[in-house]
Description:
Blueprint: H1 48-64, H2 76-88, E1 97-103, E2 120-126
Antiparallel strand pairs: 1-2
Helix pairs in contact: 1-2
Amino acid sequence: MTGTAFGPQGPNYSTARPPADPKASAGTDTWFKNCSAAGAKDGTFATADFFNVFIGNLRYLVRQAGVTLDDATDTMVYQAVLSMIQANMGGGGGGTLVIRRTSRPTSSRPRRRSPATPRSFTRVVLL
Length: 127
């Protein structure tokens, strides 16, 4: 099943992306905040410009990975990221990516470990 894939579904949508307000993607890290009290109206107002930038980025990621946009699945972004990781690891998107958290390899000689040294590491294996 295909459909709007991340887009709004209702009577007031647009099939062409409107020009973005420069403030919607000005490059500054910003966050949403809740209203300080009921009725205060001091929370973050989400605009269509914001959502259009977000939707555009999600669609681009999924399409570039070769994943079909499909409203019937919640795993499109996961599939896209997995496909790109596999392709960049030489798997061509056809392998199985296994991520394991394992103990740090030990050596035959003792060594001092600083507090910042991790006790375990993550191994990524393409099968």
